[in-house]
Amino acid sequence: MRDYQFMVADPVLEGAGWWFVARGLEARRYGPFATEQDARSRREALFARWDSRARCRGGWAWKATHEQWRVTVPEGVPVRGEPLRSAPCAVHGALPGEAM
After folding, report:
1. HSE of 65 in the Cβ direction (CA atoms, 13 Å)?
2. Which residue range is the domain that position 52 belongs to?
3. Is residue 62 part of a domain?
4. What tens digit of pLDDT does each residue of 51-92 get?
């Protein structure tokens, strides 16, 4: 399994609408949204879609922090996030994303 990281910022008001940015290997802006709540709802819907796609490919998505999202998928599945370690933890023996 392989972990990929994305930094997904909270929504910000820019001009006439609310936007948020997801950064992996490249940045992608989402918006504009009419309200901050609408932007936050769409941000959570994005996470749900990522998790669904990852599960269809034999993996999962999880939140390391509110803004740090991870996608864990089998080796060879293309993901446009920043790659993280794929070997078991030397201390705990767990793979990334597994409960310890």
Report:
1. 8
2. 2-83
3. yes
4. 999 999 999 999 999 999 999 999 889 888 888 865 555 555
